[in-house]
Design goal:
By secondary structure, the chain is of the alpha+beta class. The chain has three helices and ten strands.
Length: 154
């Protein structure tokens, strides 16, 4: 669990109004330091109406601000090797919901966790690239994203 490119579904205890959420694992190193991104179904986080978005990069004023998952688009495969689509439209806003912690710290704050999908390689690459290019991504995550992109493009 928490392998790069995995989508995890879990009950998250350390957020206001604890609830079940999806999150995408972006990075994990040998010390089990992990970077993840929560998805949200609230379109106000990216300032765009979901009805106006297509799957992929979310741009506002020609700058990437997030990544949109259209519920009709297959993004990866589940553990039984069946296609996975999100159950509703959702977005990863790059200025909200990105977390860095150790695996141990993450596991303390979630329950009933399960891997629901391994993203298709191109999907994972597109998310990482979008995060890297976004001015909304906290600069402290850029070195992690650079490492991932270097591995992808080798």
């Amino acid at each position: 669990m928490f392998e790069p490119g995995e989508v995890v579904y879990a009950y998250v205890k350390n957020i206001h109004k604890p609830k079940f959420k999806y999150f995408v694992t972006i990075y994990q190193d040998d010390e089990l330091r992990i970077v993840t991104c929560f998805t949200t179904t609230k379109n106000y986080h990216v300032g765009c109406d979901f009805n106006q978005l297509t799957h992929g990069y979310v741009k506002r004023e020609n700058k990437i601000v997030g990544y949109f998952f259209d519920m009709n688009v297959e993004v990866g495969m589940d553990e039984a090797n069946h296609p996975f689509k999100f159950s509703e439209n959702c977005v990863i806003p790059f200025d909200y919901g990105v977390q860095e912690a150790t695996k141990e710290q993450f596991l303390k704050n979630i329950e009933q966790e399960r891997v629901v999908c391994k993203l298709h390689p191109q999907e994972y690459q597109d998310i990482v690239y979008a995060m890297y290019k976004s001015p909304n991504t906290n600069p402290k995550y850029k070195p992690y994203l650079e490492k991932v992109l270097q591995q992808i493009y080798q």
